[in-house]
Design a protein that fits this description.
Strand order of the largest sheet: 1-4-5
Largest sheet: 3 strands, antiparallel
Shape: elongated
CATH superfamily of one domain: Head domain of nucleotide exchange factor GrpE
Order of helices and strands: HHHHEEEEEE
Number of helices: 4
CATH topology of one domain: Nucleotide Exchange Factor Grpe, Chain A, domain 2
Structural class: alpha+beta
CATH architecture of one domain: Roll
Amino acid sequence: MFNKKKNHDKEENIMDTENTSENTTPENVENTDASANNETEQVSELSVEDKLKEEVQQLNDKYLRLYAEFDNYKRRTQKERVELLQTAGKDVIVSLLTVLDDFDRALKAMETATDIAPVKEGILLVSTKLKNTLAQKGLKDVESISKEFNTDFHEAITNIPAPTEDMKGKVIDEVEKGYTLNDNVIRFAKVVVGA
């Protein structure tokens, strides 16, 4: 019984092999190769397309991160600029607080003072302290009287006849002092010029 079954299985295997060999004609082989190549091309096209999509996604993510970083940078610098403008004069104001305290003391002293000489002396000391504090911050006054009129530093209010020939074109009087801060004019001196 077992022998019959073995023989029967052998016969089926032989028939399958014959059928397979019949199907493997050159035309069938070409069709099989073509469909295999077609599938390979589709797989490679899909893989290339997938790679491109992945690359586009990576570049898009990189762009978004850079844009966010730049936006944060703009906000941070704008905030720093506003803070700088709000506290730009802080250094100068802090240095002037001692002068303000001296003025307050001088005003109290003036209320009870009977002699005017010490009050004048105190006011002169406070004025000198104020000028020295501002000079330390880079403030200088513009020398004007008897100097040549210079539009870089002076603003002419009026012309008057010069008292002498050598005073023509020079500053005769100063109505308001001019100042420079770190060699940049912050207020022009208002002057009277000899004509």
